[in-house]
């Protein structure tokens, strides 16, 4: 049965390691959440390592500057893995070759040092998608015709960010996962390495072992996240405990009119996706 603890401190006796989502839990793309950062800092000081596990399509080393810019303190985490880290292994497996790079120029660091030549949907060997070119203006339907050409050619679609949408300030922004869904609906084949898929969890657990200096007891690992089909499903599929953050991306469905977590609504939300969480809170607090 899922429980509803008052905060992270109530779980400190049960777990040694936290694998924590980033966007929607500790920041919203515009500003960090001070109470969440404080909770993770206290966990790191009093309990054990915090490994950030993000569906960012960029390598983790490149995302640290973004966290710094959003005033996420370095004390809030001790390790960091991204979907971009896991995706680079998939890209290397398809190199050398011609790639249709779908996504903004800021994500080009993903391809550094990999022998790939940019191409279009008509002549590429495969697709690598980090997001929409202009995610503040475009929607997935803008890509239908080009994706149809690629799907008819049988191109593999490597999705560097399985998230469908993310909250940026008060806006919902489409992510690479939304384009992957459209591509699959057109008959195309998609592979992903980020949450909820196993590759990123293996990276995160390896990082946790490095930080602990010993093997990880999977029964004492707590995943924290706000995405039902990414964070919660990933933990569920990996048989890891999960603390669901209800006020994140699903806040409209999981939070009552009084602004507090609605347990019945949370249960219904998870059951609709046939996944379960171990615990749930409104916001991440200590």
What is the fold's blueprint, element by element?
Layout: E1 17-20, H1 34-46, E2 50-54, H2 60-69, E3 79-82, H3 83-93, E4 97-102, E5 116-118, E6 126-129, H4 144-152, E7 156-159, E8 165-168, E9 171-174, H5 176-185, E10 189-192, H6 198-212, E11 221-225, H7 228-238, E12 241-245, H8 251-254, H9 263-272, E13 279-281
Parallel strand pairs: 1-2, 1-11, 2-3, 4-5, 4-6, 6-7, 7-10, 11-12, 12-13
Antiparallel strand pairs: 8-9
Can you describe what's shown?
Helix 7 links the parallel strand 11 (about 220-225) and strand 12 (about 240-245). The model has no long low-confidence stretch (mean pLDDT about 95). The chain has nine helices and 13 strands. The chain has about 290 residues and is an alpha/beta fold. It is globular. The strands form three sheets. It has a six-stranded parallel β-sheet, sandwiched between helices. The protein has a five-stranded parallel β-sheet with strand order 5-4-6-7-10, with helices on both faces. A two-stranded antiparallel ribbon has the order 8-9.
